[in-house]
Write a structure and sequence with these properties.
Layout lengths: L1 H18 L2 H21 L12 H15 L4 H9 L28 H15 L6 H14 L1 H12 L2 H12 L2 H5 L8 H21 L2 H17 L4 H17 L4 H20 L4 H6 L5 H14 L12 H22 L7 H7 L6 H4 L9 H8 L2 H14 L5 H17 L6 H34 L6 H14 L1 H4 L3 H4 L22 H12 L5 E3 L5 H8 L2 E2 L8 H12 L2 H10 L4 E5 L3 E4 L7 E4 L9 H11 L17 E4 L5 E4 L6 H5 L1 H6 L13 H6 L3 E2 L11 E6 L6 E6 L2
Parallel strand pairs: 1-2, 1-3
Antiparallel strand pairs: 3-10, 4-5, 6-7, 6-8, 9-10
Helix pairs in contact: 2-6, 2-7, 2-8, 3-4, 3-5, 3-6, 3-27, 5-6, 6-10, 7-8, 7-10, 7-22, 8-22, 10-11, 11-13, 12-13, 12-15, 12-21, 13-15, 20-21, 20-22, 21-22, 22-23, 26-27, 28-29, 28-30
Amino acid sequence: MGIVSRRYIRPLLRFLDLLGEDKVVIFVILLIAFAVSLLARLTPMRWGVYLNEFDPYYEYYLAEKMLENGQGNVLAGIAWWYHWWLESPKPRDTLFWAPNGRDLRGTSQPGAAFFTVIAYALLKTLGVDVDLYYVHAISVPVGASLAVFAAYLLGRELKDSRVGVLSAVMLSLSWAYAYRTNFGAKHEGFAIPFMLLAFYLFLSAYERGSLLRAFLAGLSMGGVVLSWGAYLYPWNLLALVALVWLLIRWDDVKMAKVFLLENLVTTIFVATTPRFGPGAAFLSLTGALPLASSVVAALVLLGVYRRALPQLNYRKILLAATVIIIAFIAVGSVAGVLASVAGRLLAVLVPLVREPGVTTVAEHTVPTWNQIFEDFQTALFFGALGMYVSLLRARERLKDLFSALYFATSLYFSSSIVRLLLLLSPAVAIVGSLGLVELLDRAGELVEVKEVRRRREASPGWFLAVAVITLLIFSPSILNSKIPLYSHQPPLILSSSIPVIRYDYEYMDWLSALEWIRINVPRDATIATWWDYGYWISVNTRRKTTCDNATIDTKQIQKIATAFMSDEDTAMKIFKELNVTYVVVFEPLQSVPLPQFPGVRVYFSMIHPALGGDMAKSPQMLKWIGLDASDYIYGYRNGTYATLTDQYGYTVHLLLPAETSKALNATLYRMIFTRNHKQQLFIFDSFIAQQLQGYKGPVLSIPPLKNFELVYVSEPNGWVKIFKVKG
């Protein structure tokens, strides 16, 4: 019996020993981190298979077009995309930005469509019967979850496997990263893993002197270029790291070779992508830093010695560069030179300079420090510590120079635009993990020093206390993750843009409206709507729209804004010019019962961050055309919004038209407050204002529409209204 027991126990003990191996433990932790990351992103599938937000619908349409023009062949579809360079005139798709249409390939990045089509073809080859829409929805969470492995590799390269593992775990629990890369989300889910992999390959290429890794780093950066407009950040970051390092160590031929090869491959991707082209690669402000770094690297390779160059005083150079940049911004703002720089890019570089195309988009707002801290918690402080420690060693180690510049630049740029908190997520995870490990290592070194001095075994008690306190301070970054609470939110199209956690399909107005359009509106119709809803309408109904989320035609957006905020005759003139036959407006009107009349409800527009309909967007429409919102919104900017107070003393602020002829004649407001079978009474009606206690606001009389016919009110709440243009 004992022999039998030993026979089975020994293999078990060997198996347990194997499980204790470092590589096995690391592998298991990474698998768990990947599983957590993927499952969290897939939880919205409980509501059904829907794409999320807006851009993914357009990217799905591009994938369809790629398959269609490649006749089902992936390589032919990719070839069709690049055949754009040989076509003249460039074809335009009038489904978007009607009547002139949009040059799909010349204004879009193909990465998300490429990866979706490749995955779709691969699954088909393996015999999996799957729909392209489903593949597009699931490809982003799978791609985004793979970033935990890239984060591990980068963290390990910066210090050791401890930093790598902790980086992977931190990234898997980052809500700022998960929010934009969940089920049905857009291209960032491909870009971030490629970016982190490119960073790892670049640093390891230098460390090992491997030109193959430098080439692969360029290919990884190419994946970022194809997928993400913010490719400019990692492209310029690596150029900055290389430039600073070569200025410190002019004779470092290895760095010159690694950077030139990596940057050459990246630049080829930029130059050959139709949206960017050679102009963006070689002649743009955004490509100036990589070009300058390449020139310096070439000089190093050519053997130009530092003494052959003028003696450089780096402090004076830094001061002079700062003065030149400030002067350029000041003069460029006055002279209009900066107008040629894309608005979003300019807002990132210089947060004080913001055009209407940036300020009127919610995801382009400047985040508060409270928002940043809520997303990253105390890991921010450890990231700052990691940056500081790295900065102290930056002249000696390329890895530390990279860490310091990575955290500092990502923090700066993400503080300019809220959507770029996504960019900060991996930086906080990786450099924050580095800071934590460095702190614990320093504490451990102090213990060793005391042991040597006392020549006896030192009590580790104080070290354990420091370690526990440090881990407790760091722990909110993991324990306060928002992923368990928010990851299962329904897609925005399913909840009509209302960000809810508990949901019972009570806000399906947009799905209702889109289905009605698909069935009842003629195929050749053109629909005018504010740009937020353009992709939803065009892709889901295949009806033409006048503007959409790309916001690529400022003049056309201004025309739509003018039509909505002007009288009906002006609106008709503009809509006729654009061949508009239908108009869609969205306003999530709220209601309260009228106590004196059981069953009767009174409707109003309420100020609430989750209720961003066209009434709330109208001040932004006015900003596009240079008009003052205080002439249109009652109480705007002077603290006298209309209010409604219930019997318990709870007060809400209301968005109502101002008591001006401009507001009362505005086409948009007349459409929003058009009476219908669902919404007969509004809070500003004379009779209601007298009966409804707690209401403090104007009494208004909004004339009925004369040039537009209400043809559909969405179910179940009447939030989406569809009008047919008369005549």
